[in-house]
Design brief:
Blueprint lengths: L3 E6 L3 H12 L4 E7 L2 H11 L3 E5 L7 H11 L4 E5 L3 H12 L4 E4 L8 H16 L4 H8 L12 E6 L5 E5 L11 E8 L3 H9 L10 E5 L5 H12 L3 E4 L10 E4 L5 E7 L2 E7 L11 H9 L4 E7 L8 H10 L2 E6 L9 H7 L5 E3 L1 H11 L1
Parallel strand pairs: 1-2, 1-3, 3-4, 4-5, 8-9, 8-14, 9-11, 10-11, 14-15, 15-16
Antiparallel strand pairs: 6-7, 12-13
């Protein structure tokens, strides 16, 4: 089996050695070179043709964000960002996700500690995952297009072919779907999610007659930067969810990193309920927990969306939504997913009503709202 070739770009000699040592210990990976800034990194990419690049966000000469934009234009390749946990670092990382980076890893700070070994495992796993991303997907990510007007297609009857591919058949759509009921939109996503969320939220109108609840797998400190960034780009209000706040139509609430997002009813209002209960299947926030909480809302029809991400978070929650009824479910298509994990497992339940490219998801949501 051919090894995954990695280029490490970081202005710190210590970090270059540390990352190289971590990756080299895995038999599936070989570090083909290092670079000390973005300019040097772009040159080495052309010389060494790596499969994956790890790229520091903050560097002299040419910073990581500027280097990433050039890489996506000149030589699209899977890139993992290494970020500090500072406010500026988080904001730059969110912009890097928009610009086409696959994912990010928070840099260890201070002296060497046991925490470094947690970073090591995450780094290896994300490099291996990044190596599976197809160049065609990266090219689509890096081409900044205008808002699209999706087609009116709808899909159901999802079955695997003999080759294991997903086949969908068109069906009609009844405009009378739960017209008398209030609606709530719930979205779950992971790897590649910040870019997918941007595509969806920026195409929703400010007068959408429903609130939007979002779980994006991301550490504490980064979800607020993500919400603030999306808020500046969107017609709707986007914010990090706060415990106890009343949920309002036209507002998207992103679960804070490290906290589960649930809902409860107080009088005539829906209210955000955050907690720090144990992670579910390694995730806090968990899409499953949010979906399950929303499934208990009898007075609401639900529009559930599962987008790009590794693993199966959201699938069990989708089943609970379906059992309770009053739900339409949308999955992002393999064509636009960075990682076709979460949508694929959701599709396999046969509870998905529509499979759509990410550019078409906003209009599909609006059709059901």
């Amino acid at each position: 089996m051919e090894k995954i070739k990695v280029l490490v770009v970081d202005d710190s000699a210590f970090m270059r050695k540390l990352i190289t040592d971590f990756l080299s210990e895995d038999a599936r990976i070989t570090v083909v070179g290092t670079a000390r800034n973005g300019e040097d990194g772009i040159k080495k990419i052309k010389e060494l043709t790596p499969d994956v690049v790890t790229l520091d966000v903050e560097m002299p000469v040419l910073d990581g964000l500027s280097a990433l934009k050039r890489i996506m234009m000149e030589h699209p390749i899977p890139v993992l960002m290494l970020s500090s946990t500072t406010k500026v670092g988080a904001e730059n990382t969110i912009q890097a996700m928009e610009a086409g980076a696959i994912d990010f890893i928070t840099k260890p700070s201070g002296s060497i500690s046991l925490d470094l070994y947690k970073v090591k495992q995450e780094l290896v796993e994300k490099v291996i995952l990044a190596s599976t991303v197809k160049p065609k997907t990266l090219i689509n990510l890096s081409s900044e297009g205008k808002k699209t007007t999706p087609s009116q297609s709808s899909y159901s009857k999802i079955e695997p072919s003999e080759e294991g591919d997903i086949i969908v058949q068109k069906i009609g759509f009844s405009k009378s779907w739960m017209q008398s009921m209030r609606k709530v939109v719930v979205i779950g996503t992971s790897t590649g999610g910040p870019r997918a969320l941007q595509k969806v939220l920026t195409n929703l109108p400010s007068d959408i007659d429903a609130p939007i609840l979002i779980v994006q797998h991301m550490p504490a400190g980064f979800t607020r930067s993500l919400a603030n960034r999306l808020n500046t780009l969107s017609a709707i209000t986007v914010k990090e969810a706060e415990h106890g706040e009343i949920i309002r139509n036209g507002v998207a609430y992103i679960a804070p990193g490290g906290q589960h997002l649930k809902v409860k009813t107080i009088g005539a209002h829906l209210v955000i309920d955050l907690d720090e209960a144990a992670p579910l299947n390694g995730h806090r926030p968990s899409v499953d927990i949010m979906f399950e909480s929303v499934s208990e809302l009898k007075a609401y029809a639900k529009i559930a969306v599962i987008m790009t991400g590794m693993g199966s978070d959201g699938t069990d929650g989708l089943k609970k939504l379906a059992i309770q009824g009053n739900v339409k479910a949308i999955a992002e298509s393999q064509e636009t997913c960075i990682v076709f994990g979460m949508p694929k497992t959701a599709i396999a339940t046969n509870y998905i009503d529509e499979i759509q490219k990410v550019d078409h998801i906003a209009e599909t949501i609006m059709k059901y709202v």
